[in-house]
Design goal:
Layout lengths: L7 H4 L4 E4 L6 E2 L2 E2 L3 H10 L4 E5 L6 H10 L9 E3 H12 L4 E5 L2 H9 L3 E2 L6 E4 L7 H12 L3 E4 L16 H12 L4 E2 L5 H10 L7 E5 L2 H11 L2 E5 L18 E3 L7 H6 L21
Helix pairs in contact: 4-5, 4-8
Bound molecules: magnesium ion.
The site of magnesium ion has 8 residues, from loops.
């Protein structure tokens, strides 16, 4: 009798998590209850995970220190930012290029690390990330560079929260201004772009069916995960609310109030439904489990 063929996915199935930060493990300076325990459990059980943030402002080291302050002990290799994804992407598109940057330390550091020089004249790219150091003079120079042929790159296009008193207009708002002024469309690397979503999975050495994205924002985390065929978990501890879920044509696989409600043991037993196959034309999307 022939030996049955081993299905490597089934036999050695592992699960790894891509975890958004703001709204999932902390809100402002406050840790979300249960986040420390969730991360400690992942580490104890050697479950691969990566914090995936569209915030390009900080370096890996700075993020590690920020997390330690709220009781989450991780290493630099647990952090993957849109600044890192952007620098990696540009280095693959045009090695040793030059960039004019509207952004801060994390972005400049990542670009330098990937062989990029920061240029004040004739840059290959204008790269825009999150930050508070922007001046109108910098915006004007960026506009001139783009009009002269520099390509416009966004680390991310996160929607501005549109809340009075909110201190961050968001990279999306800065990009909207530059696009309007230049008539050029920016290319965005951060979530939900497949560029960052795929780079993060590869960074963890996971297969598509092994990857789970946890996030609080439908437009970035969940959309990015859905597009890649990853399983997705939406937490309601951040920007998304139950009331606004109906506005989207896609759904997460699992909806929980917070990270502490994620049934980790279910994932570890391998009982979780496999990543979705692409929907056929005219087929209704699968309902989220409640
Ligand atoms: Mg978030």
């Amino acid at each position: 009798m022939k030996e049955p063929k081993l299905n490597p996915l089934r036999t050695y199935r592992k699960t790894g998590f891509l975890i958004d930060m703001d709204g999932v493990i902390y809100r402002g300076a406050q840790v979300i209850p249960g986040a420390q325990k969730f991360i400690a459990t992942l580490k104890e059980r050697s479950i691969p995970f990566l914090f995936l943030t569209n915030n390009s402002r900080f370096t890996q080291r700075e993020m590690v220190i920020k997390l330690r302050r709220i009781g989450i002990k991780v290493e630099e290799h647990h952090i993957f930012t849109s600044a890192m994804a952007t620098a990696e992407f540009l280095a693959s598109q045009k090695p040793h290029g030059t960039a004019y940057v509207l952004g801060e330390g994390g972005l400049v550091f990542s670009l330098n690390e990937h062989g990029y020089a920061i240029a004040e004249h004739d840059p290959d790219y204008v790269v825009v990330g999150e930050g508070r150091s922007l001046t109108l003079e910098m915006v004007e120079r960026a506009i001139d560079f783009v009009l002269e042929g520099a390509k416009l790159i966004a680390t991310n296009l996160d929607p501005a929260p549109r809340i009075k008193g909110w201190m961050k207009p968001g990279t999306g708002a800065i990009i909207a201004m530059l696009e309007e002024a230049t008539g050029k469309k920016a290319f965005s690397v951060g979530k939900p772009s497949p560029v960052m979503m795929r780079a993060a999975r590869k960074y963890l050495q996971l297969e598509t069916a092994e990857t789970v994205m946890i996030g609080d924002t439908m437009e970035t985390d969940i959309l990015g995960g859905v597009q890649m065929g990853y399983r997705t978990i939406l937490v309601l501890s951040g920007s998304a609310t139950r009331a606004t879920l109906g506005n989207f044509a896609f759904r997460p696989d699992l909806l929980v109030n917070s990270i502490s409600d994620i049934p980790l043991e279910v994932f570890m037993k391998g009982d979780v439904p496999p990543a979705k196959r692409p929907a056929r034309r005219g087929e209704a999307p699968r309902r989220a489990r409640r």
